[in-house]
Write a structure and sequence with these properties.
The protein has 3 helices and 7 strands, in the order αβββββββαα. It has 173 residues and is of the alpha+beta class. It has one domain: Peptide deformylase (Peptide Deformylase). The chain has a 5-stranded antiparallel β-sheet with strand order 1-2-3-6-7. Strands 4-5 form a two-stranded antiparallel ribbon. The relative contact order is 0.17. The structure holds the ligand CC(=O)Oc1ccc(/C=C/C(=O)NCCc2ccccc2)cc1OC(C)=O and cobalt (II) ion.
Length: 173
């Protein structure tokens, strides 16, 4: 399965992702293709919609203290549901679908979710720190929401200006 990252302002990123009902070979092939793609592009989180599959699937691999992303840190999250969220934290986020742009985004500090793993078994996860931020960022993707949508008006204007320049440079290359 050959995947490419869909980049802003592509309208496909705005679709609402659909629930996964069959935990079959097709789903496993998607998960197995998303993971190397995320690692190769220096990502720590990736939602299926970012590779043009509007299904409620996301993967995360949060780097450890040395900045490595061992395979055992991979978490495959399907049909996530927020059970609890608390506190507030700000972090400079980036997104593989909005390359070379980073901005501070406010999120909940801790989050508890239920989800299904690749076999359809229900799991629950309580997270804080970067994992909590990543879960919220990726779950927004499932609703067609990007981190740039959460910027203040002035910072969004700054983004639009900057991003046009970035896109010109990248196309120019
Ligand atoms: C040039 C470029 O596009 O830079 C990047 C931007 C974003 C990313 C990855 C962003 C990412 O994984 N975001 C997941 C959501 C998230 C954001 C903030 C904190 C937790 C989770 C990787 C980039 O590639 C390189 C080479 O750094
Ligand atoms: Co993203």
């Amino acid at each position: 399965m050959n995947l490419t990252i869909v980049e802003y302002p592509d309208k496909r990123l705005r679709e609402k992702s659909k629930e996964v009902n069959s935990f079959d070979e097709t789903l496993h092939k998607l998960l197995d293709a998303m993971y190397p793609m995320m690692i190769e592009t220096n990502g720590i989180g990736l939602a299926a919609i970012q590779v043009a599959h509007p299904v409620r699937v996301l993967i995360l691999n949060i780097p450890d203290e040395e900045g490595n992303q061992p395979d055992e840190n991979l978490i495959e999250i399907i049909n996530p549901v927020v059970i609890e969220k608390d506190g507030e934290t700000t972090y400079q986020e980036g997104c593989l679908s909005v390359p070379q742009f980073y901005e501070d985004v406010k999120r909940h500090e801790t989050i508890k979710i239920n989800y299904q793993d690749r076999h359809g078994n229900t799991q629950s996860l309580e997270a804080d720190g970067l994992l909590a931020i990543a879960i919220q960022h990726e779950m927004d993707h499932l609703e067609g929401i990007l981190f740039i949508d959460k910027l203040s008006y002035s910072r969004r204007k700054k983004f639009e200006k900057e991003y046009k320049k970035i896109q010109k440079e990248r196309k120019g290359k």
